[in-house]
Write a structure and sequence with these properties.
The protein folds into 2 domains: about 1-70 and about 235-400, 3-Layer(aba) Sandwich (Alkaline Phosphatase, subunit A); about 80-230, no CATH class. Helix content is about 30%, strand content about 20%. α2 (about 30-40) crosses α13 (about 310-330). It has 14 helices and 13 strands. The chain is globular, with a radius of gyration of 22 Å. By secondary structure, the chain is of the alpha/beta class. It has helices at about 25, 30-40, 55-60, 65-70, 75-80, 120-125, 180-200, 205-215, 235-240, 250-260, 280-290, 300-310, 310-330, 395-400; strands spanning about 1-10, 40-45, 90-100, 105-110, 135-140, 145-150, 220-230, 245, 265, 295-300, 340-345, 360-365, 390. The strands form 2 sheets. It has an 8-stranded mixed sheet with strand order 9-8-10-1-11-12-2-13, with helices on both faces. Strands 3, 4, 5, 6 and 7 form a 5-stranded antiparallel sheet that branches. The structure holds zinc ion. Zinc ion binds near residues 9 and 10.
Length: about 400
């Protein structure tokens, strides 16, 4: 048996999105509809009814983990997602290159959306050092203003606030402990010292002098957010005895795949944006399954980004690209022994422009699945679906059809 999970991020919508219809209803999706014809459909509450999911918590839940028990914060997935080594006890953060004035007023949280020269900033920041000699610091830049930092040492805590005011025109704020513990106090102190150090390291670098001479904002400070330790979760292999691959372009999703023990691969010409050549993810998944993997997870980001931008036309166009991905899988998977689930990690209505708690349509297809009568795949048609309404756990349900689950009880 083989299993495939395709997540179209932010797939779900509301009837207010496009003249009384959702983007998924408006999009021309013959292949996705073919999944509905062949399979069983329903609605998925990514975490549970009435919980408004983040992408990270929703993915954990869809993979069968309970985010209320295992979720530690986003920073660790970002660090893993850009290829950093993360060990038990490490505290990870997402970072931004940002711009402050000499009084530490935040002028821009993304340093003028810096695109070039971040390798020079990264090199300079290798000198970041804690005054506590037993704590090691690792920094890595990612795309544009983004990066991650890992603190390694005994007695550190992820229970601290962001050193990031999350808005401009205000002074930098200090990280504070969220709990009354020595570890949290010490970690917050280290973060505050690193933020200040980053300013002294970065402010006079040649790249920043050059940016200023060109009228651009200098990248002269690091903002820290999303403090998180590595979640204590068993891998997919430990839970199910299977080898899987995660195919994603966004750092968060690569990081989640690594955190649950999937090997991660990047398909050619994929970007994590709406312009990504996502068909290559389907090709890579088929190759990986032919080369011995049991399970492929394909993450497709663009629909969510278009919805955050309130752009219904773009979301519709992206869903039609996703339809080509499904078409390739329909043509190239071995349907005698493959089960596939297709869904979103949450609903992102284009009018609201952010995640909401509404459920998303889900479909399961494969030889062991009893199909229902639903012939189109969208928020409205699946109301009649045979799967009814489920909460998270898409992957355990999928693996159940593959006969990969251990028996609960005797
Ligand atoms: Zn998402």
């Amino acid at each position: 048996m083989k299993a495939v999970l395709v997540i179209c991020d932010g797939l779900g919508g509301r009837p207010t999105d496009y003249n009384g219809k959702t983007c998924l209803e408006v999009a021309n999706t013959p292949n996705i509809d073919e999944l509905a014809r062949r399979g069983i459909t329903g609605l998925l509450d990514p975490i549970k009814p009435g919980v408004r999911p983040g992408s990270d918590t929703a993915h954990l839940s869809i993979f069968g983990y309970d985010p209320e028990k295992v979720y530690t914060g986003r920073g660790v997935f970002e660090a893993l997602g850009i290829g950093m080594d993360v060990q038990d006890g490490d505290v990870c953060f997402r970072t931004n290159f940002a711009t402050v004035d000499e009084n530490f007023n935040v002028l821009d949280r993304r340093a003028g959306r810096i695109t070039e020269g971040t390798d020079e900033l990264e090199r300079a920041l290798q000198s970041l050092k804690s005054s506590q000699p037993d704590v090691e610091i690792f920094f890595k830049a990612s795309t544009e203003h983004r990066g991650a930092i890992v603190l390694r040492g005994h007695g550190l805590s992820g229970q601290i606030t962001d050193a990031d005011p999350h808005k401009t025109g205000v002074r930098m704020i200090r990280s504070e402990p969220l709990v009354d513990s020595e570890a949290a106090r010490r970690t917050a102190e280290i973060v505050n010292e690193l933020v200040e150090q980053s300013y002294h390291i970065l402010k006079d670098l040649p790249i920043n002098r050059k940016r200023e001479s060109e009228g651009k904002l200098p990248a002269n400070i690091l903002l820290f957010r999303g403090a998180a330790v590595k979640p204590d979760i068993p891998s997919m292999e430990e839970l199910y005895g299977i080898k899987g691959v995660g195919i994603a372009a966004g750092a968060l999703y690569i990081g989640i795949a690594r955190a649950i023990g999937l090997e991660t691969k990047r398909a050619e010409e994929t970007t994590g944006g709406a312009d990504s050549k996502i068909i290559n993810k389907a090709k890579l998944a088929v190759e990986e399954l032919q080369n011995g993997k049991d399970f492929a997870f394909i993450h497709l980001k663009g629909a969510d980004s278009c919805a955050h931008d309130h752009d219904a036309e773009a979301k519709i166009a992206y869903i039609e690209k996703v339809d080509e991905v499904i078409g390739y899988l329909l043509d190239n998977l071995d349907w005698d022994d493959t089960h596939l689930a297709f869904t979103g990690d949450h609903t992102t209505p284009v009018v609201y422009g952010d995640h909401v708690s509404d459920p998303v349509p889900v479909v399961f297809v494969g030889p062991n699945i009893m199909p229902d009568d639903v012939e189109r795949f969208n928020e409205r048609s699946v109301l009649k679906g045979g799967m009814g309404r489920i909460s998270g756990r898409v992957v355990p349900i999928l693996f159940g059809y593959c006969n990969w689950l251990k028996k609960y009880g005797a």
